[in-house]
Specification:
Shape: elongated
CATH topology: SH3 type barrels
Largest sheet: 5 strands, antiparallel
Strand order of the largest sheet: 3-2-1-4-5
Helix content: 25-40%
Number of helices: 1
CATH class: Mainly Beta
């Protein structure tokens, strides 16, 4: 199973960005989103170090709510 993580762009340098989510910061490639207008503050879905899709803040929050529910459910079944 592959999992993409919603992250917020905090800095852009060419086709690379520093993104953050849940207190974790990562370098992310923006190469696959060359046609999208991206700026700091935007949210992107990240998989294997590449931003795959631009998303709204609400979409990012909804995804994190689902991930948190999934993790909580997995912890109760251990």
């Amino acid at each position: 199973m592959c999992l993409a993580i919603p992250m917020q762009i905090i800095e852009i340098d060419g086709f690379n960005a520093r993104c953050t989510a849940k207190g974790v910061s990562r370098e992310v490639s923006l190469f696959l989103l060359q046609g999208e207008p991206l700026e700091t503050g935007d949210f992107v879905m990240v998989h294997t170090g590449y931003a795959r899709q631009k998303m709204t803040e609400q979409e990012a929050r909804s995804a994190w709510e689902l991930y948190d529910e999934l993790l909580a459910a997995m912890e109760t079944h251990e």
